[in-house]
Amino acid sequence: MTFNDDARIDTSRASKRSGGRKGGIAIGGGLGAVALVLLGQLLGVDLSGLTGGGGSAGDGATTESLDRCADASLANTDTECRMVGTADSLDDFWSQTYPALTQAEYRPSHVTLFEDAVGTACGNATSAVGPFYCPGDEEIYLDVAFFEDLRTRLGADGGAFAQMYVVAHEWGHHVSHLTGAMAAADRSGTGPTSDAVRLELQADCYAGAWAAAAATTTDDQGVTLIEPPTDAQIADALDAAAAVGDDRIQEAATGQVSPESWTHGSAEQRQRWFTAGYEGGPAACTTFEVAGTDL
Ligand SMILES: [Zn+2]
């Protein structure tokens, strides 16, 4: 999706943390070389890879604003500014949509960009964990270098959308946290109809709901933030949703598919729920209400 060059981005929904201490964090495992695996790792809400009680990786870290991203044209060329612009659009969408959906008060999330390591209320994380949502502080954590790598691997257009999709998916987890669905879910199980998969498909559905309405989100002056998606961009969106299916990722990584260990859902499930949100809005994201056979 393309930002409107004439818009002004509200940069308050994202910031960048630099200089976090890396020592003392023990998270093993390198990143997979396959882009699909890489993208799959981006979309987890699984925080089991985090260590410690939080905070220490932030020792000595400084937080800087991303005010330089206020000109929306930068969101089309600069990864950090694309994240800032996407967060602004997501906040505009959900601040209007959430109260109508739930009759409850909305609280914004916040995107924290980091390099190497970051301390969070959910523990310490390195870029190896992949971007994630922490319900403890209601923030989304994204490693910038990881994102640029993703964009390089997926190509300029598909990669740019994939980056925005990741932020929208993580903001979707924030919405499930606000509604209480995340706390109510039993996240210990796996498999195609597990609560873990229902939570992930709900985030995909919420991402689809935002994607459909992104072209209606505006800046403070009422100027449209994002141009309506083209057919090719919608096709990219569905490709991205399929690429992160557990079956595709397992197939790419091991050559075998084991549905009983799924945590995010199949390519078909992820495409279908993204589409459900795209066509039906957030009210269609009933992943915890449908029978397993309809999931
Ligand atoms: Zn997720």
TrEMBL record:
Residues 1-22 are annotated as: Disordered. Residues 1-13 have a biased composition (Basic and acidic residues). It is a single-pass membrane protein. Pfam families: Zn_peptidase. This is Neutral zinc metallopeptidase. Keywords: Membrane, Transmembrane, Transmembrane helix. PANTHER family: INNER MEMBRANE PROTEIN (PTHR30168:SF0), PUTATIVE MEMBRANE PROTEIN YPFJ (PTHR30168). Coiled coil: none annotated. The keyword Ligase does not apply. The chain crosses the membrane at residues 23-43. It is found in: Membrane. Signal peptide: none annotated. The keyword Secreted does not apply. GO terms for cellular component: membrane.
